[in-house]
Input
Amino acid sequence: MATLRQTVAELGALGADRRSGAAEIADRAAALLEAFCRGQRARDPQLPYALSALAEATLAAHPAMAPLLNLANRIQLAAEADGRALLALRRLLAGYRRERQQAAKAIARRFARHLPRRATALTYSYSSTVLAALAAARSRLARVIVSEGRPGYEGRVVAERLARMRIGVTLVIDAALSEQVEAADLVVVGADAVLARAYVNKVGTRQLQEQARARRKPFYILADTSKFLPAGLAGFHRLEAAPGGELWRDAPAGVVVLNRSFESIPFERGVTLLTERGALTPAEVRARLERQPVARRWPRLRQGGQTNGSGRR
Amino acid sequence: MATLRQTVAELGALGADRRSGAAEIADRAAALLEAFCRGQRARDPQLPYALSALAEATLAAHPAMAPLLNLANRIQLAAEADGRALLALRRLLAGYRRERQQAAKAIARRFARHLPRRATALTYSYSSTVLAALAAARSRLARVIVSEGRPGYEGRVVAERLARMRIGVTLVIDAALSEQVEAADLVVVGADAVLARAYVNKVGTRQLQEQARARRKPFYILADTSKFLPAGLAGFHRLEAAPGGELWRDAPAGVVVLNRSFESIPFERGVTLLTERGALTPAEVRARLERQPVARRWPRLRQGGQTNGSGRR
Output
């Protein structure tokens, strides 16, 4: 059994994880929320307020990662389900986890069909969706090219996992990854968020996409629909910089260390967004985003100009 | 006084320095050679053979760096100056050092004229020529953007030196540098070699040049003519990869660490090559390259397919 205070603290602590992918962090948040639910009474009149607090903590943990914003939205939707909040949340959480697992498998299956035999794939940064897809496509892969992923070195994690599956890996410095597009048959990346006209991923992805276009190599974004960020939530979406100390702990005075983690990349011709529902065009993405329900409380919160007291934004 | 054996060993040791710029390493090689000269007798009949050995050691130390190949060429030209080898070498070495210093100053003066007031410059990797130019242009600089420079972190060295001169510095990860071109007024890089149709610099430079072109930002290559590599020496020029262990010491089995340091970048429209003789067009570069004398021994060595026994190539 987890108290409200504990759960808020644990959700906040997820913000310090800068190596895991967006989907993984959202899965951990869902598990924390399920643990919270176990100790609650359905008829507790305080429950909607508690859920609103949990929704805000989830919203604030990693404001660049859409799955967390979507999870926060689900919690708040449950809080707004008069008298049935706990039941609604349990159902939403169970649904969330099941959907995620099925989505990852469906994307992996679809991705494998796009691979030529003995393919050399190039990937950047860490995405659990991409790793699952590469694992499933193992028999068609000759080699995967990946870069270090400064400052967190999450590219080494990718390299290690792939090597354990006996997939050949070439690891290069981040600055050399674009040049390696030439040697690859295709480029595949994950996403932290999918918006109406762009997607969000680690800084450097845009460069890679441009390089792939210039060299006419297929470019895939693998993202399940939990990454889709409806306009009503987009106002909470922040591409904030991480602490500079992660990059250079003892930087001399006069040196500003700018540790930007994310960037927004426009959907461009030749780029394929692969979801559990197949490849979606930007128009189809927009149609889906418009249909997604958004909790009543969010627009009011945005007008108030404040979502929480953690000071992280 | 330094023996032949010592000097060959010391020249070889320069190959392990992967943080200093090409011009700096060549300066150190010239100093080692001057020390060797001090202990020699002009009439020693062995001298030409000794100089050939020194030329080969210089050629092999950093085969991507043109100043070292040019220095090796000068040593070999001296060895081929019948009966006057020592005098010829002393003159060539003294000339080399003087030319280098004057060239760096001339380039710095010319570069400063290209800078707008309160300019934000972006640079990549470490170049002593670029550092000297930025130092001389201090009063016109608002800020310099630089990246870490994995794996050697030579970008931190640049940041530190600039900060000491009270020039504002922003340091980002290598993958974010291209994106920062937007925030800069101009991009400036050094070069390890200048060839007939391309120049050589750290991997990642080509990407930066493409980004600068796309955003219509001026792009400068600062390189004195000691970086110019005549066709007769180009056969010794190698863009070999550095040891993978520098990138990831305990990489798991199955992961090939490809630590490429250099790449060749074509001269393109909108790119300015600034030398001590002013901005040169590719046609002017080619004309100069054709005029540079090359020692008689090199073509023979190349036919033999071997330049030394150090096993580095």
About this structure: Chain A has a mean pLDDT of 92. The radius of gyration of chain A is 20 Å. The interface with chain B takes residues 147-148, 150-151, 156, 159-160, 162-164, 166-179, 202-204, 206-207, 210-211, 214, 247-248, 251-260, 263 of chain A (CB under 8 Å).
